[in-house]
Amino acid sequence: MPEGDTIFRAAGQLRAALVGKVLTRCDVRVPQYATVDLSGHVVDEVLSRGKHLFIRAGAFSVHSHLKMDGSWQTGRVRVAPHRIRIILETTDSHAVGVDLGVLEILPRDHDLDVVAQLGPDLLGPDWSAEVAAANLLADPGRPIGETLLDQRVLAGIGNVYANELCFVFGLRPHTAVGEVADALRLAKRAQQMLWANRLRVQRCTTGDTHRGRELWVYGRAGEPCRRCGTPIRHDSGGDRVTYWCPTCQR
Hints:
Elements: H1 4-18, E1 21-22, E2 25-28, E3 42-49, E4 52-57, E5 60-65, E6 71-73, E7 84-89, E8 94-98, E9 102-107, H2 129-136, H3 144-149, H4 159-168, H5 183-197, E10 233-235, E11 242-244
Antiparallel strand pairs: 1-3, 2-7, 3-4, 4-5, 5-9, 6-8, 7-8, 10-11
Helix pairs in contact: 2-5
């Protein structure tokens, strides 16, 4: 599931493939931008901002958001052509955007306007645990799981990290955020989790990287809690699935 760490890693792969090189092909397969051709422009920057990616070339910026199923691929691409949204090629490399939830070509000078509403980026230069903590507590009656997922509060957390953070802090996802004893500590731990996983393909929040042992509760409904053995519960109602241990999270 694409979260801030996934986007950070994708940006690094795109930098290695494209930055400093002249585009020899630009094939945009979104009707609104199908006539845009960035061929001849040098890709000079790739940015990640929360769950958003920006590829800057000349006066333009390719903005994308993966949503649930999207990806950027720079190696061998084996997908059906109808799933490809954009192809960028140089003389010796290429990048293909597959199933992108959002793809648009923006004026470079104003590309970041589309993410101006985001909170501090957990993996970005603007990260501030103090600002993130204040944002978390701005609506004390709101559920903590929902608040962590709000990109206007802090940018980069998705459903996996939201559930894992709730477990680590002993709170059920539906607990009011005002009951968090130390919001600053929560914000710092969130950043630490994403930072530790920014270069990993397989996320790990438990400290045990062996396959099947990486996560505390996410995706483990019915399995024993790693701390107390109580079966993990889940709730699939609403937009997101939540997981918790009824003993460890009160």
